Amino acid sequence: MKKSKIYRYIVPALLAAAVLAAAVWLFLGERRTEEEVPAAESGSGLEEGQVLYNGITYEYRDDLKTYLFLGVDNQEEQLEEKRPGQAGQADCILVFVADPEDETITILQGSRDTMTDVELYDLSGEKFATEEEQIALQYAYGDGGTRSCWLMEQAVSRLLYGVDIDAYLAMNLEGFAKATDLVGGVTLKVPEDYTKINPLFSRGARIHMDGALAEQYVRSRDTKTSGSNDQRMERQTQFLEALAKKMADRGGDAAFYTKILTELEDQIVTDVTAEDLAFTQELLFERGALDVYTQAIGMKKGRAGVMLSCLCAREREEEFAQLILRHTPSLGLRVYHPQRVTLPRREERIETPYGAVRIKRAGGKVKPEYEDLARIARETGKTLAELRAELARS
Fold it and tell me: pTM of the prediction?
């Protein structure tokens, strides 16, 4: 488990580093041992949302944001239609826990081979059994897209004692290669002798990896050798942290993140909750955005999506871009500089039976300020339409 003062890395990091400490240490800040952690039970003296470990009571923190990253290996399956049990495997399962209090990210890592309850589904999508399997296989019983991600989200949540996952991002392993090339490659020091994978991967060698070499480094393992997945996890963590750092070093380069988003669109499946969007909209308005709105859109391959748009002054473009990237799982955003045509206007304050009301006059049009109308409507019980008509006659 790692904790670092790199809260601004959360979006690049969703392309890049670690989960699955199979325990409630997501909140406690230390690794779980083999000892089970009892949850609140009737007569235990514990309240809902509490756990007891080594005689100490801990409480879940509702303010933490938890993001799930999945690195998906579907190379072996070339089916046009993904069927239950054939939709690939989640070889890289990562969780990021963002703490808004001290602006840190806790990174938790675990194994694709973790044994847990996996829900099995038939071709009609009906659940027919639950068996103890490797958690990586839960992804296979979806559609290779949003349903597979949802199944993995549920499996990880169960393993973490019901912890809510705020958002997920899944990327197939080919996406690692693309991302590496987009940042100009990454340089790594090989920690162990992996020359069986590639003669270049000798212990201690410093290698600048392009996309193809990076994919080989994070994907390959000797399935006949015990512990080979643990070694691969170490390589994945090492590589992903280096990739995240390389991406984060670009700071708030909106054009760079836009390119990343565009190039990786076919390799990525992600979601964002309505609560995340609503909260982000509130923050944008609080910081002085001129306007913020969302639109339901259809994306490639029939995927449903939501487009968040923010209108702001050009000199504050960087500030708002960083806020959006920090508070949503998006990998990037598009920046446009539209021209604006307006009528000459002036602002006035007029006296009404309900008190002073601010209005704008432009080209013969009169528009009362919304905040003033809303205040009067709450005080009088009248509708906004009735108040506008009344003020227009005055």
Answer: 0.57
